[in-house]
Amino acid sequence: MTAERITAIYHIRDDANRVDARATGIAVEQSVEMPVAAITDQGVLDDIVGKVESVRDLGDGTFEARIGLSVATTGLEAGQMLNMLFGNSSMHPDITLADADFPDSVLKAFGGPNHGIDGLRRMVGAQKRALTCSALKPQGLPPQGLAKIAAQMAQGGLDFIKDDHGIADQAYSRFAERVPRIAEAVAATGNRTVYLPSLSGHLEQMRAQIKICRTAGVKGVLIAPMIAGVATFHALVRENPDFAFMGHPALTGPGYIAPPFLFGKLLRLWGADAVVFANYGGRFGYTPGTCKALAVTALGPLGDLKAAVPVPAGGMTLARVPEMLQFYGRDVMLLIGGDLLSAGDRMAQEAAKFQNAVMKAA
Amino acid sequence: MTAERITAIYHIRDDANRVDARATGIAVEQSVEMPVAAITDQGVLDDIVGKVESVRDLGDGTFEARIGLSVATTGLEAGQMLNMLFGNSSMHPDITLADADFPDSVLKAFGGPNHGIDGLRRMVGAQKRALTCSALKPQGLPPQGLAKIAAQMAQGGLDFIKDDHGIADQAYSRFAERVPRIAEAVAATGNRTVYLPSLSGHLEQMRAQIKICRTAGVKGVLIAPMIAGVATFHALVRENPDFAFMGHPALTGPGYIAPPFLFGKLLRLWGADAVVFANYGGRFGYTPGTCKALAVTALGPLGDLKAAVPVPAGGMTLARVPEMLQFYGRDVMLLIGGDLLSAGDRMAQEAAKFQNAVMKAA
C-alpha cells in the first residue's frame, strides 16, 4: 500500500552542496520530526515520513525541493494541514513554501469556495465584467458615521463594500449596533451593493457575528484567516454555504508562504470566494509578476473547485482603473478605499465614476 | 482626554532619508489605514490614529520607530490586538515588530499565565531546579505504541511529556483513543509526570479535546497559537484556569515578530505557562543572543503577570544539558525529544539520566 501524498514545494536558499541534506531535513521536520534511524515501525517509515521527490537548481541561488507529505498526517483539517506544510520550517528564513499539489481527495475534503467569482457576479447582477469594492473607514467612527459613508458608496452603485479590516468589535462601534445600521443604510439606496462586515475573535464570537449579519440581511463577510486561524475560517465557510467569504491578507507575512500559493490555492481551498492582496505599485512590495501569478492561480484550475476572484488593493486609485483592468482583465475585483474616502461630500459621485469606469470597460 | 496607548516598537531597514515617512506610514497603516487628511472627525484624529513617538538610528542599517497605538482599537481581544500591532505591516519584508510596551489595563485585561513557572514547578513537585520535558513521537504510531513510549519516559521520572506538535486527531491515532491510553500509561508509573496532549482544530474541537483530557485526568495541553488563532488560545486559557498551557512555535515565521517579544511577552500575555522555542545550536537559526533575550523577557517583569518558563528545543541532546543549564540557569524547562527516542529499549534509563542530571545541578 502506498500512502496518498501532497507534494509540497519548497524554495531553499543555500549552497548546492548542502541542499540535498536541507531537503531531507524538511521532509523529516514536516512529518515525524525525529531521527528516522530511531523509527522501528515499518508503516511509519513507509507511509508517514516525508519523502524527497526531487531537488533542482532554479539558477538564482535558490533550489526547489519537492517533498511528498502523507495526507493522513493532515487529518484533513485546515490548521493541521498548515502545520504539516510549514509549521516548523516557517522558522527558517531561507525556506519558502512555494506551492503544493493536492490530490483530489484533499480538494474534495476541503471543498473550496461556495460561490467563487461566478457566484459573486450573480450576487450583484454583474455579467462578465470586473467587480468593484470599497472599504469602510476610518475605524473610530460611531455606527451612524460609518453608515453615512456606506450609504454614499452604495449610492454610487459599487458592487461590494467591506469593512476596514481594522474594524472589529470595539467599544466605539459594537458589531451588534454597527452592522444592522450599515446594512440598512446600504439597502435603503435600492442598489444591489453587498456589504461585507469584518469578523473578529474566535469561532464562537464569529458565529454570533454571522447570526447578527443574517438578521440584518447581510450576505457575506470579511475575515483574516491567518489571524482567525484557518480551521476557524474553514469551519465558518462550511457552516454558511449561502454566505460570501472575502479573505483579508493581515498577518500573511513577508512572503514566506509564496503569495500565489497562499492566496490562490490555500485560502481558496479553505473557501475564500475573494482574496484581497497587496497590489504592485501601492503601499506594499509585491511585484507585478507575483500579482499576476496570484491572479492566474486563484482563477486557474484546482480540481472541481470554484475560482476565487483576485482583489488587488492597498493604495489603489481611480486613475489606475484602466491600467489595472488592462493588467488583470475582467476576472478581478478592484478595491479602492482611501482614494474614494478622500472625496468627502463627492464620495457618491466618485464611487459612481469608479463603477462606470469598470462597467464601460466590459 | 488622551486615549490610552500601547507603544509598539518596529525595526525598519531603510535609508535614513525615508525612515520618518516609513514610521508615519506604519502609524497610519496600523490604525485607520486611510489618508489622514481625509479624516474630519476630531476624536478619530486625536484618539484613534497611530502616533509616531520617536524614531532613532540603531546604527546597523536599522531604525527603531516607537508608535503609539490606541488601546481602544484592539477591543481588548487577542486577534484584533495582533491585527493592530502587525496585521498589514507584516507584509513588509523590511519591517520587524520588535517589541511593545503595554499599559497595565491591557496586561490586566488579558491576564497572562494561570500558573507560570512557579505553578508548573508545584505541579511536578520541583523546587527551584530546572524542569524536564520530552516529546512523544513519531506520529503515525497507534495509541498503544505512543503509550508504550510515554510509559518509558515517565518511568525515567521526567516532569513533562508533550505530544509531538504533529500529533493531532488523525485516523491512525484519534485524540479520544490516544489521550486516555497515554495518560493511563503515564499515571501507572506512579511518578508525577504531567502529560501534555496536543490540541488541534478550532475552538469547538479544542474544547472537546480538553473535555477528553479532563476525563482522563490530564492537567495541561500543548497548543500552537499562531496556527490555532490567538483568540482561540486566549479563550481556552481563560476557560481552563486549572490547566497548564504550553505554547508551540509552529508558524511563528522567520523572526518577523521578534522572538523575545512574541514568546516572552505576547504568548505570555495571552496565557502561555511555558513557551517552546528553537534553541541555538539545534536545527534552527536563533542566535544565543536571541535565545537569552527571549528567556530573560519571558521570566522578567510584565505588570503582575506570572513568568512563563522558556523551553529551548529543536534537536537538543543529553550531552548539552550542562551547557544549557549554564546558559539559562535554573529557570528553564529543558526539552529533549529525538535524542531520548533514539535510545530504543534504554529510553527509561536515558530519561532517568536526563532527569538526574537536572536534579543534581539544582
Please give the order of strands in the largest beta sheet of chain A: 2-3-1-4
Strand residues, percent of chain A:
15-25%
Q: Helical element count of chain A? A: 15
Helical fraction of chain A: 40-55%
- Characterize the quaternary organization of these chains: homodimer
Give me the secondary-structure category of chain A.
alpha/beta
N-end to C-end Cα span of chain A: 52 Å
Biggest interface, and residues per chain?
A-B, 82 and 81 residues
Dominant shape of chain A: elongated
Please compute the radius of gyration of chain A using only Cα atoms.
22 Å
Topology as H/E string of chain A? EHHEEHEHHEHEHEHEHHEHEHEHEHH
The overall pLDDT average of chain A reads 97
**Main sheet summary of chain A:** 4 strands, antiparallel
Q: How many β-strands of chain A, per DSSP?
A: 12
Characterize this entry briefly:
The structure is a homodimer of 362-residue chains. The first copy, chain A, is an alpha/beta fold. Chain A is built from 15 helices and twelve strands.
Tell me what the structure shows.
- The structure is a homodimer of 362-residue chains.
- Chain A contains 15 helices and 12 strands.
- Chain A has helices spanning 16-29, 42-47, 78-86, 104-110, 116-124, 143-155, 175-187, 203-215, 225-228, 230-239, 259-269, 288-299, 321-328, 338-341, 347-361, and strands at 5-13, 51-57, 62-70, 95-101, 131-136, 160-163, 194-196, 220-223, 244-247, 274-278, 309-313, 333-335.
- The interface between A and B is large, with 82 and 81 residues.
